[in-house]
Amino acid sequence: MMNKLFTALGIVGVPISVIGSILQWSAVIMFIVYCVTIVALASIIGRATESLAIVMGPRIGGLLNATFGNAVELIISIFALKAGLISIVLASLTGSVLGNLLLVAGLSFFVGGLKYKRQSFDVHEARHNAGLLIFAVIVAFVIPEVFTHTMNDRDTMTISIGISIILILLYLAALLFKFVTHRGIYQDQDKPNEKKKKEEKPEWGKIKAIVVLFIATIAVAYVSEHLVGTFEVVGETFGWSELFIGVIIVAIVGNAAEHASAVIMAYKNKMDVAVEIAVGSTLQVAMFVLPILVLLSLIFPTSMPLVFTWPELISMVTGVLLMIMLSNDGDSNWFDGAVLLAAYVIMGIGFYFI
Amino acid sequence: MMNKLFTALGIVGVPISVIGSILQWSAVIMFIVYCVTIVALASIIGRATESLAIVMGPRIGGLLNATFGNAVELIISIFALKAGLISIVLASLTGSVLGNLLLVAGLSFFVGGLKYKRQSFDVHEARHNAGLLIFAVIVAFVIPEVFTHTMNDRDTMTISIGISIILILLYLAALLFKFVTHRGIYQDQDKPNEKKKKEEKPEWGKIKAIVVLFIATIAVAYVSEHLVGTFEVVGETFGWSELFIGVIIVAIVGNAAEHASAVIMAYKNKMDVAVEIAVGSTLQVAMFVLPILVLLSLIFPTSMPLVFTWPELISMVTGVLLMIMLSNDGDSNWFDGAVLLAAYVIMGIGFYFI
Amino acid sequence: MMNKLFTALGIVGVPISVIGSILQWSAVIMFIVYCVTIVALASIIGRATESLAIVMGPRIGGLLNATFGNAVELIISIFALKAGLISIVLASLTGSVLGNLLLVAGLSFFVGGLKYKRQSFDVHEARHNAGLLIFAVIVAFVIPEVFTHTMNDRDTMTISIGISIILILLYLAALLFKFVTHRGIYQDQDKPNEKKKKEEKPEWGKIKAIVVLFIATIAVAYVSEHLVGTFEVVGETFGWSELFIGVIIVAIVGNAAEHASAVIMAYKNKMDVAVEIAVGSTLQVAMFVLPILVLLSLIFPTSMPLVFTWPELISMVTGVLLMIMLSNDGDSNWFDGAVLLAAYVIMGIGFYFI
C-alpha cells in the first residue's frame, strides 16, 4: 500500500516539478514539491534495485544494492557539487550517517521494541560493521581533520584523494569478504536463512526493473538539480543555516524511503534486515558515496576535501560510539531505540542553533 | 559499627557547625568541620533512603534511590549555584562522575580483588549502563561543548535547556525500562536473587525513616550553605584552584558515605551492588542531578549552561571509555581496580596543577 | 634461514658502520647502512633474549622479554634525547605504537588470514590488553595533552613525571598480575599450552646468550648514536619532516625484526603469539619505554614532557579504538588485517604531508 502511494506520488510529482520550475513558482512551494517527489522516486529506485538484486542472484544483487542503494543521495550531491555547495554536500553526508545510525536504527529498535520485549540480530555481522564504522568515521574522517589543520589547500586535497581511494578499495574488499571469501562463514548454522531467501519474489521482472530504474534515475537527477537551486531562498525564509539544511533536511529527504522500510522490517521482527539497512547504508555513504564525490569533485571548479566541520565530525564520532555500544550484544529493545533517538534529537537541536 | 560512628559524628557535627558559624571560627577549621558533618549526614540520609526503599517495595524503592541517592550533592550544588559559583558546581559534578566511576569502582574492584581471585557481576546490566554512560557523557556533554564554541550565551543556554530536558526524560525512561517493562528480563534464571532481597530488613521503620530523612536533609542544607562560603578562603590558603576544590574535594565529601558502602559490598563479594552504586550513581548525577541543576539555575541570577571545561570533559570521556572497557566482560580483579585508581590519580594530578 | 641472514647482516653491518662513519661517507648512504645494521642487530638481540627467557623459566623469562623487548628503541631514543631531538623521540614512540598495533597486527591478520579462513586468539588476554591500551594511550597520554595546554613548562614537566611514575608502577603491577597472582587463571583449560612450552628449546645456551646480548647491545648503541646524526641531512635530502622520520622510518627500523617474527607466527597459525608481540610490544613502549625516557630526560639538557602533538595523539587514540574493536571477539581474518593496514596507510599519508 505504501508502495502504491509512493508510485502515485512519483508519477504526479515529476510533471508538477517540471511545470512548477518552468512557471517559476515560489521557491518554498517548489522546495516542498521537489522533496516529496524525491522521496517517492527514491522508494521506486529502491524497489527496482531490490527486484533486480533478486533476479540476478545474491552476489551481483549484493553488489547492486551496495552501489545503487544510495543513488539518490549521490545524484543530489553531484548537482550540489556542480553548484559549488561543498559545505551542503558534506553536511548532507553527515546527516545521512547520523540519520541512518541514530534515526533509522533508533526508530527500528523503538517501534520493534514496542511489539517485542527483546529482538536479536546477528552479533558477528554487528561487530564486523562496528569495525568498519570505526575505520571509516573515526580513522578516515578524523585523521584528515586533525592533520590538515595547518596545511595548505593543495596538500589537503592530496590527502583527501589518497584517503578516498583507500576507502573505496576497502569498501570493495569488504564486498569481496562478505559475498565471496567469507560468505556464510559467520552465520549461525541453525538459522537456515538460505531457504527464506529462496522464497523472495521480485516485484518487477528484469526488463521492467531496468527500465524503471533508468527513468526514475533521470527524473531524480532533474528534480535534484532544481531542488539544489531552492536552498538559498529556503534557508533565508526559514532562518535555516546551510549546515541544518544539509544535515537534517537533505539527509531525511534522501533517505526517507529507506527509513520507512527499515522500520517496517523491525516491526515484522526481521531485525537483521533493519540493522543491515541502517548500518549498511551508513557504511555505503561513508566508504563509497563520499569518497566517490571527493574524486568526482576534481572535475568541477571547486574541489571538495575530505574535511568536515568539527560539529559534523564530533556528531558522527559520538554517534558511532553510541551505536556500537548499543548493538554490540546483538540484542535490542525499545529503550535502546529511545537512546538513539534522544541522541539524534540532541544533535538536531545543535545543528539548528549553530 | 561504621554506621554508629557516622550517626555520632552527625549528631555532634551539626551543633558544632552552628556554633562555629555563629562565632565565626576560622574558615579553614570550619571547612573541615562542615566536610566531616556532611559526610556523616550523607551516610544517615543514605540509610534512611535505603530503609524507606525496603519498606515501600522494589519499584517505589528504586525510584526513591534514583531520586534521593545524590540528594546531598544536589543540595550543596543548589547553594553553590545561588552563590553564583557556576564553575565549582560543574567541577563538583565532574568530580562526582570521576569519583564514582574511577575511585569507587576502582577501590571496590581492588579491595574485593585482594580477597577473591575473580569477581563477577551482571554483564547485561553492565552493558545497559555502558550505553547510558556513552549517551550521557559522550553525546549529551560533548555535543554542547563543540557546538556552542562560536555561539552567543542565549543560544548556548537554549541548547543547554533542551539537552537537559532530554536527559531527564531519558533518565525517567530508563527507570520505566528497569523497574516496569523489562524488570528481571535480563537477569540470569539460575540466580534467584529475589529470595535474597526478601531477607533484607530495614534499619528503621517507615515513620522514623521519613523523620530522619527530613531532619538530616535540612541539616545538610544548612551546613552546605556555610561550606560553600568557605571555598574562597580555603582555596587561597592551600593554593587550590576552583577546579580542584570542585572536582576532588567537594566530590569526595558529597560521596564519601556512598563510596564506603560500595567498597564494603565488594569485600562481601556482592559485586552487583558495588557496581550498581558506582555506575548507577554516576548515571544519576549525569542524567538527573546535572540537568535538574541547569533548569533550576534559570531562577538564579547566573544561569548555568551545560558546558564543561575541556579538561573536565576529556577526563569524563576517557574515564567512561576506560570503565566500559574494564567492565564489559562482567568480571573484575585487583588489577582492574588498580587501573581505575591509577586513572583517578592521573586526573587528580592534572586538576591539582591546572 | 632468516635468522642466518640477520646474523650475517649484523656481522657485516657493524664494521661497515664503523668504517663509514670514520671515513665520513655520504650521510644518505650511511643512513641506509645504519638502518639495515640495526634491523639485523635487533633480530639478534631478540633471539638472545628469547633464549635467555627459555633458560630462566617463564617468570624471569617474561620479565626479561618485558624489559629487553624494546631495548633497541630505548637505545636509539636515548641518543636522540642526548642530541636534544625531543620531537623525534616522541614521534618514533608514536610510530612504534602505530607500527605494532596497525602494521604488525594488520600484516599478521592479513597474511595469516590468506592461509586460514578464521584464526582465533585468547579473548581474555585481548580484553585485558584492551583495558591497558585505553589506560595508557587514551587516559595517560590524552590527559597531559589537554591539561597542559595553558600551563607553564615547569608544571608540564611535573605532571609528566607524575604520570610517568604511575605508568611504570602500573606496568610492574601488570607483570605481577600476569606472571604471579593470576598466572593461567584466565587460560582455557582445554588448551594445555604448558606442554607446548616445555618443547621449546633455546637457540643459544645461557652464557652464549648473555655474551651475544651484551655485544649486540653495545653495537646497537654505537650505530644508533651515528644514525641519529644523519637525520637532519636525510630529512633535507628527501624532504621528510621530523615527524615522518620519527613516526615511520625510525619506528620501522626499530621494530622490523619483531614485525617479521609476528607475521611468521601468524602464518603458522600461532595467533596468540602474534597478537602478544603486536599488542604486548605496544604496551611496553607506552607504559615502560616512554615513561623511562621521560624520567631519563631529566639528566639531559632538554627534558622531554609527556606531551605529543595532536596528530600523533589522535593517530594513537583512533588506532587503539580500531584495534580494540577488531580484536574484541578473539577472532581474525584477512579482512580485519586489511582494515588495520588501511588505517596505517592513511596515517602514513598524513604524516608524510604534515
UniProtKB/TrEMBL annotation, chains A, B, C:
Family: Belongs to the Ca(2+):cation antiporter (CaCA) (TC 2.A.19) family.
Keywords (A to Z) from UniProt: Antiport, Calcium, Calcium transport, Ion transport, Membrane, Transmembrane, Transmembrane helix, Transport
Lineage: Bacteria, Bacillati, Bacillota, Bacilli, Bacillales
Organism: Lentibacillus salicampi
First-listed, main subcellular location of the protein, grouped into a coarse class: membrane
Localization, UniProt: Endomembrane system
GO MF, one example: calcium:proton antiporter activity
One GO CC term on file: membrane
Protein name (Swiss-Prot/TrEMBL): Ca(2+)/H(+) antiporter
GO biological process: intracellular calcium ion homeostasis
Domain Sodium/calcium exchanger membrane region: 27-179, 209-347
Any single Pfam family the record assigns to this protein: Na_Ca_ex
